[in-house]
Every structure is written in C-alpha cells, then in structure tokens.
Amino acid sequence: MSASNSGVGKSQMIAAFLARFGEPPRWVVRAPGRVNLIGEHTDYNEGFVLPMAIDRDIRIALRPRADARVVVHSLDLDKRGEFDLDSFERGTGWLEYIKGVAHELQITKCQLSGWEGVLTGDVPRGAGLSSSAAVEIATARAFAAVSDLTWDVMQMARVGQRAEINWVGVDSGIMDQAASAAAWAGHAFFLDCRSLEFEQVPLPNDITVAVMDTSTRRGLVHSAYNERHRQCMEAARFFGVEFLRDVSVDQLEERGRKKDGLDDVAWKRARHVVTENERVLRAVGSMRRDDPAALGKLFNESHASLRDDFEVTNDALNWIVEIAQARPDCYGARMTGAGFGGCAVALVRRESAGEFADAVGAEYQSRAGMEAKVYVCQASEGASVV
Question: According to the model, what pLDDT value does residue 304 have?
Fold first, then answer.
C-alpha cells in the first residue's frame, strides 16, 4: 500500500505547545530522515555514500528557559523527559539521543542554554530511515537556536555522530547525520566519509524514489551491526591499511588468490565494502549522465552483495526487493540502511509511482503475510528553522 505522510502537523504542534506552555513557541526546528540510495556499510570504513534526505522529519517546537534544564514532551510517545545541563547521567530510552547531543556540544565547549518544547515526527522508527539521526540533528538545531550557536553543518553532523557512538552506544558512521544536516532538496548527497567533502548531485529527471517498509524491525545496538564493524577492521588489518577505503578492486582480486590469514567471512565482508565503494562512484556518474537504467543496475548489484557477502538482509527484504525488481516500471531496487530488517529502496518511473506502490504492497502482503508501507519520497533539504 502507498503510505502518506502522517504525524502531527506544524499547526497541531504549535497548538500542543500552546496547551502546555500557554504561549507560542519561539522556534520550530526540523531535521529530515534519510534514505541511502547506495553505499551501504561503507561509511564507517571511510568510504563513499550517496543518501538523500526525505520529506519526513523530526520537528521540535521550543522556547528558552531561564535555568539549565531541558524539558521535552514527545507527542508521538505521549512521554515527558527532562534533565539538567549542569549534571546529567546516561539512562535508557528516547531522551538519550537528546542528552547525547547536549553532552557532545558541551565537550566542544559550547555554552548551552536550557529550553522546553514538544517533539514530533513522521520518520518511521527502526525502518532504516535514520529517525535517530533526525532526532540528533533536530536537537542540535534546537540548541543552536536557543544558545545562539553557529550552524556549521558538518560540525553538527559530527556532534550527532559522536552522540550516537559515545552516548547511545552504536558504532555509527557520519552519513546519516550529514545528510540530515546538509542535503539539498532535489539532490542526492554524495559524501566522502574520510575527508567529509560532499557534493549535491541532481537526481535523474524521470524517476521517483520509493521506500518500501517491510514492517520488520531491528535494534542496532543488539544486532550484528557492531560485529560487521569488527570484521571490516580485521579485514583492513589483513590488507595492511587502516580502513577498507584504501583497498581497490584490483588489490582485492589479487589478494583473493592468496588470502591465507583472513577467514572466509571477513573476506566476504571486505569484498562487499570494496565493490560497494566502486558502485557509489559509478552511481554518481550515472546520475550526472541522467541515466536511471545504469543507476538501477547498480542498485541490483548492491543488494546482491549485501545479501551474499555482507549477509545483512532477511527474507522480508529479499522478497520485497525481488517483487520490485520484477516490475517493468522499476529500474532497480536494494535493501537500504543497516539491514536485518527495515526498508528497501527502488528507483521507479515517476508516472508509475502510485501503481508501483499499490502493486508491490499487494504482492508483498500475499507473499510475506505482512503489510508493507511504500513511501513515495521527494528529496528534501537538510535541517532548518521553519
């Protein structure tokens, strides 16, 4: 089924703020989720990625406080959280993403002011669309507004990434936070995860991006994500480099004939990362040429590599990708995000987007016995004050 945007709109959000605080908010800030078009598990290997920000976001309406407290009402969860900027400790739950950002900003010697507000959003949680990064970057945007901080997109992306790693406990690359902070509307966000240089690449003219939510979920902290990270580091040591970014396809093939000292599993992980980096570079070229057929072929190759070499798909992801790939209006499809559940992404002819969404949803329901929400997404801008 095709899924429309849900969640609390801006006017409802302001009404909810008024009901709690008796006056309108001083600011409303937002930060989008993202879908990764191609370049999976390359970010923490200092490689290349090509996400786009989507037209689903996390929004915070807020006003300053006279003290050092942060008070947040989650409208979607119907929960309230608060902490004191002068003294707070790690806990559990949704508030930890906000605490983590505050902690990292304080480490960088930012003088933070307290605030109170309401938070809502329509980025599906646990679907591989970076709802956590959107919360982190929206929080950074809120602190920047209330504390009069300079909004440097990559500096704030690093703050969000470090919050995820150091406070929440997930070995995150910087892709999610960077796309949420810095993307342009109508463009994909090509990022070199080593230099943090980025380029905005226009999307092909006659395609739309369909995000297909399998309704299966994973928890990154308790999944095999960190295990894959360790295996990549093991493979990098085998090749005598710090990160797999520095291994070429030719070097991979050469060492593949004499790989004593590296087990087969770590070898497959390396093969995915090295070939995926090459696919990202080719994908950027395809987009510059406005060649959706070539781009779709790279999507299909990426999914096969994630399924067979990196082993982060599941039955649901494979089924929905196969269903999409079989459609005549689909150029290509692949799982997206960390894997183990969540979403896949497809390149679809723009004029067929609605028909594609309905057909894929119906066939997936028949095959998997679960509902698939198919989001037809536009490429949106990064974090902003609205």
Answer: 98
Q: What is the pLDDT of residue 10?
A: 76
Using CA atoms, how far apart are residues 109 and 229, in angstroms rounded to an integer?
A: 30
Strand partners for 336: 343
Residue 65's pLDDT is what?
Answer: 97
Distance of alpha carbon 81 from its chain centroid, rounded? 24
pLDDT in tens, 263-286: 899 999 999 999 999 999 999 999
Verify that 252 and 326 share a domain, yes or no. Answer: yes
DSSP letter, residue 4? -
Asked if 157 and 39 sit in the same domain, the reply is yes
Question: Residues in the chain with pLDDT < 50?
Answer: 4, 221
Gap between the Cα atoms of 337 and 35, Å rounded: 7
| Global pTM value | 0.89
Task: Give tens-digit pLDDT for 316-351.
Answer: 999 999 999 999 999 999 999 888 888 999 999 999
Amino acid present at 264: D
Measure the CA dihedral 297/301/303/306, to 10°: -160
Q: How far apart are CA 161 and CA 140, in angstroms?
A: 11
Asked if residue 176 belongs to a domain, the reply is yes
Q: What is the pLDDT of residue 2?
A: 54
Q: Compute the chain's Rg from CA coordinates.
A: 21
The CA distance from 14 to 24, in Å, is 6
Domain that holds residue 264: 203-377
Q: Are residues 28 and 122 in the same domain?
A: yes
Q: Where are the alpha helices (DSSP H) in 240-263?
A: 249-256
Q: Which of 43, 57, 122, 176 is catalytic?
A: 176
Q: What angle do CA 99, 87, 82 make, to 5 degrees?
A: 50
DSSP state of 317: H
Cα gap 78→286, rounded to integer Å: 45
> 296 and 187, same structural domain?
no
273 plus 309 within the same structural domain: yes
Q: Tell me whether residue 55 is one of the annotated catalytic residues.
A: no
383 domain-assigned: no
